[in-house]
Amino acid sequence: MDKPALEIQLKTLPDQPGVYQYYDANGTIIYVGKAKNLKKRVSSYFTKTHDNGKTRVLVKKIASIKHIVVETETDALLLENNLIKKYQPRYNVMLKDDKSYPWICIKKERFPRVFSTRRVFKDGSEYFGPYTSMKTVSTLLDLIKGLYSLRTCNYDLSKAKIDAGKYKVCLEYHLGNCKGPCEGYESEDVYQGHIQDIKEILKGNFKDSLNQFRVQMNAYAADMQFEEAQRIKEKIEVLENYQAKSTIVNPKISNVDVFSIVSDEGYGYVNFLQISYGSIIRSHTLEIKKKLDESDLELLELAITEIRQRFNSKSREIYVPFEVDLGDDIKVTVPKLGDKKHILDLSVRNAKYYRMERFKQIKITDPDRHANRIMAQMKADLRLHEEPRHIECFDNSNIQGTNSVAACVVFKNGKPSKKDYRHFNIKTVEGPDDFASMEEVVYRRYKRLLDEEQPLPQLIIIDGGKGQLGSALKSLDALGLRGKIAIIGIAKRLEELFYPGDPVPLYLDKKSESLKVIQQLRNEAHRFGIEHHRNRRSKNALNTELETISGIGEKTIVDLLKHFKSVKRVANAKLDELEAVVGTSRAEKIYNYYHNN
Asked: Where is the UvrC family homology region profile domain (predicted)?
């Protein structure tokens, strides 16, 4: 499909946090930015007058926009950093240098050290982050230091050197900040147990650590050391509010391609995220037009091959929502939980947003295309001879047989046409007889359309099963319309559609747009009918007493209620007040009725 104009892209951006990328006419990325709200932020470039000359030049050169949706503003900040480092866009100045966000490293060594770093090495050490604030890192390291006594020296604490007495404890040991593993005062097993607890804290699993903090806080409070207790309380609050993990970056996930798919009747939308050492370095969504009724599996396998060739991907592992066959050289993973599942979910979100944006763009550039597609789909799904551009749906409403009414709602080109809605008060049927009521309203509706030479619908939908459908068919037979208008009945379960003379119902896919239109028709008919039924019951309840007065008609009752607002006020009104509204003759009848009684 043709690339939408820049103005249309601006109108269809999502109101979500994310990262936007500007491209020039040559397809070169010239700027990367982050946003709490993509639509507001990107639109501001084109609606505001910029004082900065560099920004004005940038806006002039923007030819197209891409974006990646993320969950939080923090995720957007991290992803922005990764993309700027990779692509070095011309108009990004702030983050082009080698500055990186801080990580917390658990060093791969005997008696591991825990410290902050801005550089990540593939040396087997474990890295947690990156963090957007050094203050957060310092707080976490202080918390860890307060909970666990860890070494800070960089000695090689091999067993042989410790046994040989090569080292002596330092001041940190005498201050109580270290347990002295350099002289063998602390065993490796106990130390590693502390390291495991620290890993849980850094992963966001604070339960055990929080319990330890609370024990400390209560002990300080019991010992009347309230300042220390308050200090521990503040650390607990920091831990409880802190989120240690990001769905964007996880250093354990490296050299991986992520693919997901969202599809409808006509197109499949495949999103691709490329992960390089824990960071998203590329996002792309491919739109595939279905030629036949291809499955999501077929479309995804086709798209994976196409995308990997286009971007020259060498990754040996991919994450996908279901099993695909890509040969023996590629490891296929279907994540079920954890960080891998978070990344796959993020890919699905981006595919869904892309699909929604394309629909919005199509509605702007080609307003009729959406309706044309649905009409063609309904014609095929419902086995009709022509597209149902004009659909009418009937529904009966009665409660315990009182005030029986029916509703007819009209859809044109798949959308409600409310000016064509009609109510029917049942005239020829006594009691709650849905079949006879349906027969009456269908006859009255199409008798009138024929008499007035109004256009007839291409499809009639009856809210009910075989019985109501049969009643409606009697009316069509009486009017000579049998076979000229398609008619179906909807059973109580919306998936069942009944056709005349066919005892076996048709079942539509629950995701089908045709079924969604039918559901909307039925719901609208039900709402419209119930609304009229309630109004009629209320009117009858109000009017009953006034209607018993001889010589008082409907128009007089309406005038009285408009003026006095209630039947009780009419009964209590003075004669001259009634005369001012309905005249002397009627006023005397009403006044005498209430006061003589």
From this structure: 272-476
CA distance 278 to 78: 11
DSSP string over 130-189: --S-HHHHHHHHHHHHHHS----------HHHHHTT-----HHHHTTS---GGGTSS-HH
Q: Tokens standing for 485?
A: 């208008």
Measure the CA–CA gap between 196 and 201, rounded to whole angstroms. 9
pLDDT in tens, 273-290: 888 666 677 778 888 887
| DSSP annotation string for 412-428 | ETTEE-GGG-EEEE--S
Tell me what pLDDT residue 95 has. Answer: 39
Q: Is 283 helix (H, G, I), strand (E, B) or coil?
A: strand
End-to-end alpha carbon distance in the chain? 79
Q: Which residue has the tokens 């009945």?
A: 489
**pLDDT of the residue at 457:** 93
Give the DSSP H or E segment for 32.
strand 29-35
Three-class DSSP category at 222: helix
Under 8 Å between Cβ of 151 and 169: no
For residue range 296-348, list pLDDT tens digits in order: 888 888 888 888 877 777 788 889 999 888 777 888 889 888 778 888 888 89
Cα gap 207→582, rounded to integer Å: 78
Residue indicated by tokens 């939908």: 461
Q: At 89, is the pLDDT very low, low, confident or very high (cuts 50, 70, 90)?
A: confident
